[in-house]
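Revision sheet: structure tokens.
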Amino acid sequence: MNDFMKDRYGVDELTTIMGIAGMVLVLIGTIAQWQWLTYVGLILVVLALVRALSKNLDARKRENERWLELAASIPGAGSLLSGKGAGSAGAAGSRPTADDLKRQVRTTKKMWKDRKTKSFLKCPTCDTMLAVPKGKGKLIVTCPKCRTRMETRS
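Predicted:
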């Protein structure tokens, strides 16, 4: 059972949008009692599952790249639909790796452990998480990664 998803494509931006849109259509179709809309939504959800479980990685990647290009061309909603909004991590169109996720978990655990003695801030240039001692007033902090200097209150 552990190896089930080993050679499968998984979830990307297009799969996510298809799944969400399908669930919304099912909900609207059920509430409005439009059976045809419910069926369209179910078809979208099934297609999203088929994409996620597909072993044809190249075709799914091309489909997702076409979706990202199309979504980026929509004025106003392009960054939201393509997954390139403010909350996306990494390069445009890339998915976080296992190392990225492990790093996020480590950082979150450390922040929780040190929450009473340290304040945390992000470097505005390189997004590195910085820790400064609490209760020291106004500090000038230098990012160890990019050497950007910033003023903060702790």
